[in-house]
# Entry
Amino acid sequence: MDIPDKSRLVIRAGDQRIADHVIYCNSRDSRRKGLLGRRILAPDDGILMKMPGFRKGKSGVVNSIHMLGMRFDIAAAWLNYEGRIQYSILAKRWRPYYGTSHPSWYVLELHSSKLPLLSEGTLLYWKAWSPNGI
# Structure
């Protein structure tokens, strides 16, 4: 599915809604900006970053995130090509590096309170938000 950059998504795991105001980051600029500059992150806000071609399916530094300049901790999860969580962690503000040894196609960043919902092996799916729900 080809989703336009900066689209609003709803993230689900089965019947459970995980977050309903997640911004899809498919461009270099939107991935680079990420959540930087925000003063707060609401409980249903976040971003889903799609890795570019040369980073898809890679692990380690190539698909890492940093928390330098961040004002809050986040729940971070690395997902495989089908949306299954490979690794998740509480990423603390001002830390230089978080990554995984698992091949990843996406990185999901949500409010820290969502970490218990991001268990390894959980299959997530997302759709464009609509006022009628999904």
User: Anything to note?
Assistant: The beta strands are 8-13, 16-25, 45-50, 74-79, 85-91, 106-111, 125-128.
